[in-house]
Design brief:
Layout (H helix, E strand, L loop, with lengths): L8 H5 L3 E2 L10 H14 L9 H20 L8 E4 L2 H16 L5 E5 L8 H10 L2 E5 L9 H7 L4 E7 L11 H11 L2 E5 L11 H4 L3 E5 L10 E5 L1 H6 L10 E4 L4 E3 L13 H17 L1 H20 L4 E3 L11 E6 L4 H10 L2 E2 L1 E3 L4 H7 L4 E5 L6 H17 L2
Parallel strand pairs: 1-13, 3-4, 3-5, 5-6, 6-7
Antiparallel strand pairs: 2-8, 7-8, 9-10, 11-12, 12-15, 14-15
Helix pairs in contact: 2-10, 3-10, 4-5, 11-14, 12-14
The structure holds pyridoxal-5'-phosphate.
Length: about 400
């Protein structure tokens, strides 16, 4: 989407080829201005004051909650909890719902392609509760092994934790199939939406999941703001994660009653500018349309897997069919360490990621310790991909 590159100051200032949006996205001027104007024109906190600027701040904050609810197809804004990021959202579920609803002998299913954020909290919960963590494997072409999943599923499973889109393989997972199967055994499903919400239309009701977590900074918003969506009846049955100011109804020396949803889960002064910036990011994405975002990225990834895959010595990971793949291309180049490749590309002003991308179990399964990863967003173009390919070829010459 060449015409919107002008909205991204970092892309105007230099000739950067930014291919690390799976880590964090760039921010358009509209988002930057919304945050700046909160500080220059409003400045007050939310929910507490009865003076004008606090009322305005509260309205902006709560309007964003409505916007987020619409953006992901939630039934009610009460189901939208603002947290710091996907990691915090998942930990919130592990320490509240998980703590209360799992016990010795229960099982939790996760998958080998999870980000550590959707793996380690479940490993730790299983350890605390003496529950079993079961891990779904992969097929040869980088999809979840659904036969393996079906075999692991039983009435002992309390929770299934799965990513919507893999941040390494790009695989788009069959969430509705998973939620339908989960219902048959009474298990809940948590979807890690970190790589999903920024890149495609999400409807949590259609997905049929129970928890959905994502981060604002990967979808044009500021850092430090994320969202947990959960069904209202589940949130009502969960204990607060953090306690203190803002999340109470009444406090006496002997006891505390909690605020209604969603504030029960938002202790302390929240990330007000982050929420306002997230609202501006959603406005921006809605103007483009999430279907268009997805179809643009699908074309880009199709082009990218083609031309990168043609470079001699390159191994591209993940599904071949680009209709089942998000805007992420992880690859290795024969005899070149991904870190060396990333350094040489950086000299050409091309930013990619090298390492395990917080997916060590997956890399172990793939038989590599690290990969190079190019990830796309709406501001990337075929020219960026071409420059990456040139850069890879140059690195091969230098390191020959
Ligand atoms: C699939 C996936 N899950 C979770 C996360 C964690 O996101 P955050 O660091 O914003 O909590 C990431 C970040 O890269 C991710 O790609």
């Amino acid at each position: 989407m060449q015409n919107l590159r002008k909205d991204f100051p970092i892309l105007i200032k230099n000739s950067l080829v930014y291919l690390d949006s799976a880590a964090t996205s760039l921010k358009p001027q509209q988002v930057i201005e919304s945050v700046a104007s909160y500080y220059s024109e409003i400045g007050a906190t939310v929910h507490r004051g009865i003076y004008k600027s606090s009322v305005i701040a509260t309205n902006l904050y709560e309007n964003t909650r409505d916007q987020v609810a619409k953006f992901i197809g939630a039934n009610s804004a009460r189901e939208i909890i603002f947290v710091r990021n996907t990691t915090e959202a998942i930990n919130l579920v592990a320490y509240t719902w998980g703590e209360k609803n799992t016990q010795e002998g229960d099982e939790i299913i996760t998958t080998i392609m999870e980000h550590h954020s959707n793996f380690v909290p479940w490993q730790r919960l299983a350890e605390r509760k003496k529950a079993k963590l079961k891990v779904v494997g992969l097929t040869e072409d980088g999809h979840l092994d659904m036969e393996n999943f079906n075999r692991l599923l039983s009435k002992r499973v309390k929770l299934i934790c799965v990513t919507g889109v893999s941040n390494v393989l790009g695989t788009i997972n069959p969430i509705t199939k998973i939620t339908q199967a989960a219902k048959m055994v009474g298990a809940k499903v948590l979807v890690d939406g970190a790589q999903m919400a920024p890149h495609m239309k999400v409807d949590v009701e259609n997905l049929g999941c129970d928890f959905f977590a994502f981060s604002g900074h990967k979808m044009l918003g500021p850092t430090g703001i994320g969202v947990l969506w959960a069904r209202e009846e589940l949130l009502n049955g969960m204990e607060p994660f953090l306690s203190g100011g803002g999340m109470i109804n009444e406090v006496t020396v002997g006891d505390t009653t909690y605020a209604d949803l969603p504030l029960k889960f938002e202790a302390g002064t929240p990330n007000i500018d982050g929420v306002i910036g997230l609202g501006a990011a959603i406005d921006y994405l809605n103007k483009i349309g999430m279907e268009k975002v997805r179809s643009y990225e699908e074309k880009l990834v199709e082009y990218g897997t083609g031309v990168i895959g043609e470079v001699r010595g390159v191994r591209v990971f993940g599904p071949e069919k680009t209709n089942l793949r998000g805007g992420v291309i992880s690859f290795t180049v024969d005899k070149i360490h991904p870190h060396d490749l990333a350094s040489i590309l950086d000299e050409q002003n091309i930013a990619i990621r090298a390492g395990h991308h917080c997916c060590m179990p997956l890399h172990g399964k793939l038989g590599v310790t690290s990969t190079a990863r190019a990830s796309f967003y709406i501001y990337n173009t075929k020219t960026d991909v071409d420059r990456l390919v040139e850069g890879i070829n140059k690195a091969k010459k230098i390191l020959k």
